[in-house]
Amino acid sequence: MRSKIAAIIPCYRVKAQILGVLARMGEEVDRIYVVDDACPEASGAHVQANCRDPRVTVLRNAENLGVGGAVMAGYAAAMADGCDILVKVDGDGQMDPALIPRFVRPIVNGQADYTKGNRFYDLTHIGQMPAVRLVGNAILSFMAKLSTGYWNLFDTTNGYTALHARVARHLPMGKVSRRYFFETDMLFRLNIIRAVVVDVPMAAAYGDEKSNLRIGRIVGEFFVKHARNFFKRIAYNYFLRDMTVASLELVFGAALFAFGLVFGGWHWWRSASVGTLTPFGTIMLSALPLLVGLQMLLAFVGFDVANVPRRPIHPDLPEREGANA
After folding, report:
1. pLDDT of residue 210
2. HEC string of 2-71?
3. What is the distance between the alpha carbons of residues 27 and 46, in angstroms, rounded to a whole number?
4. In a domain, 315, yes or no
5. 215 contacts 132 by C-beta, under 8 angstroms
């Protein structure tokens, strides 16, 4: 039986591009949900007045909820209509709808629970990306590796995604970040339920559309949220759900490293302030725990990198909600 595919298109200031995106939707898409996120250009009304595709349903948010809020409204409608795979495509024309089969295929074949685009896969296409976005995405992607645990992924802010509906039902949608942190927060919550995520190579496409995302403005906010998710992920995966040798490496490694750093720093400051040499024994008492602690922390990172989920969970999930991350 063929999976029923839904395309969710959040709309905010995309009136000039949305009809072109809809016109390029292939026959593999069964339902299309255009979510007007309180768009000041009335994109939803524009679609209703000018699009005759029977697959299209226009949803309206009473207030602007951000890209995450719009996508989750589309997810809810698609799941209520019995759709199996939920594909998120932006309405600004940067994401080619012809790629949808490529995003859906790993999920249908049982190789993934969630797929996302990666504009960095083919280095020949990176030159099309503005320099600010290139640097910003590299920084954000590295922070996302730490906070989400998906060390094998890149371009984590890429919004071209596909998700199995059964997995979506097990995510705490009410807790997922609703604005620009949405895609990265989704990855964090997918890791908590051990979902398999796969990158899908795609070309970067930039036309005359204007992005509402300002990298410089959100890096600080993202850093705080990444730090929060990192500590939550470590607590969930290494102390609440399970305890392994890596858990001990993290605890003792952090304790030894902190002791060596504080002890050595204090004695260095005291010796420097009075103009005396630090005794060799004191140096060793600082250096040894510092080096051993660092080695244990690196061993933990190595374990974490190898601990990326590899077995898709959607074939075994019951049709119910229940995630609490």
Report:
1. 53
2. CCCEEEEEEECCCHHHHHHHHHCCCCCCCEEEEEECCCCCCHHHHHHHHCCCCCEEEEECCCCCHHHHHH
3. 23
4. no
5. yes
The three-state secondary structure class of 133 is helix
Label residues 219-253 b or e (16+ Cβ within 10 Å = b): eeebeebbeebbebbbebbbeeeeeeebbebbebb
196 with 292, same domain: the answer is no
The total domain count for the chain is: 2
Residue 207 has pLDDT above 60, yes or no: no
CB atoms within 10 A of CB 77: 18
Instruction: State how beta strands 114-118 and 161-164 pair.
Output: antiparallel
Q: Stretch 286-291: mean pLDDT, rounded?
A: 96
Does residue 314 fall inside a structural domain?
Answer: no
Statement: residue 233 has pLDDT above 90: yes
Backbone angles phi, psi at 144, to 5 degrees: -65, -35
Q: Would you state the structure tokens that stand for residue 266, as one six-digit string? A: 């204090």
DSSP 236: I
